[in-house]
Please model this.
Amino acid sequence: MSYLEWSDDFSLNNETIDTQHKKVIGMINGLHDSINKGDGRNKIGDLIQEMIDYTSVHFREEENFMQEIGYPDLDRHKEIHNNLINRVQDINNRIKSGELNICWEVFLFLNDWWEVHILKTDKKILKYSISG
Ligand SMILES: [Fe+2]
Model:
């Protein structure tokens, strides 16, 4: 059984974004597995690269979607995305400078991203799109 399972309650009613959000669940589950197998440090470099690739595509798509529906809080949401990108970049720099013992920190960061950003901040987009 995976650490996190997708549920339709998480959906933003946008297939592209839902598919991308499922990838975050995949990253969390993958890292959780690696840590449990004692293999986290070997996997962390690839995972961070995946997170960098992911954020550059996904945030743009989500911002386009917000623009399309005339989401009023777009600027604030973009700022939050930029903060997340900076945090991922910071982790990447630390890994590149040899700091590999940060698997739990990355795991907690991803969990926070899931619980605070996706389930709360992103959920507001859905509330707006169905109320308008
Ligand atoms: Fe977002």
Observations:
- Helices lie at 15-36, 40-68, 74-96, 103-121, 123-131.
- Residues 14-131 form a domain with the Four Helix Bundle (Hemerythrin (Met), subunit A) fold (CATH 1.20.120.50).
- The pocket of fe (ii) ion is lined by residues 62, 77, 81, 117, 121-122 (CB under 6 Å).
- The chain has a mean pLDDT of 94.
